Amino acid sequence: MTRRGIPRMRPLRLGIVPYLNVLPLLEGLDGDFPREGWVRATPRVQAELLERGEVDVAAVSSFEGLRRAPRYRLVPGAAIGSEGPVRSVVLYSKVPLPEVRAVLLDRASLTSIHLLQVLLKEGHGLAPELRVAPAPLTPRETWGALPEDAFLVIGDAALALQGTFPLQLDLGGEWHRQTGLPFVFAAWWVREGLELTVEECSAFAQARERGTARIAEIVSRLPDEETTPCGGPLGVVDYLTNAVRFGLGPRELEGLALFREKLLRHGLLPQGVPEPPLA
Question: What's the predicted TM-score (pTM) here?
């Protein structure tokens, strides 16, 4: 039985990303979908699991969902995005932006990699060489010894590096500066062949509503080491309250549609890929 005294929904297998910014989307969600079916992995791995049918619904990066439309469908009402600086998706550079010749990319999220290409081309006329890191980047990298000029870092590692480089370009802030729209970094996507009921779709939006209303409480439950990237609990509360946006309404969908248009324009999505349908 759920906390509301009604039978559980189907025990869907959920793909969960291991970042602080997903926490408000999970509040109470185990009352509908048991934690035994939750699988934790980076956004890129989640996309592979969803493709193989090993999870049913996953917090997958926007690019992964867009390129698999209409096979994947978008769950309305909840996402991980920003309307301005997001702090956790950042290009850190050792040199001024016009001098960047090579960028080392965090392989964990293809959305960030493709968003960076769009922003550099359209906003700065730049097309540096892109090199994908063999493993997710961490704050412990010896940045000065690496040959690349700049580094695209995401998630908690990006939060921990704030203020440590001569130049940083926040991709959420740069998207908003160039377009005036929110950006959706990740959302809940449904695997091919699965139809969600209205109640199942609503469960994700309801979890988001609970989570955004209880951010301080959620953070108070975290172990100290998980709050370190933001400098402690107050920093995490500030990040989740003032940097990340968790809704998926008309303006967020407009931003997602514009991202798709720009990806098509630059040949980063195959021509003919349709807009993603809602679940």
Answer: 0.92
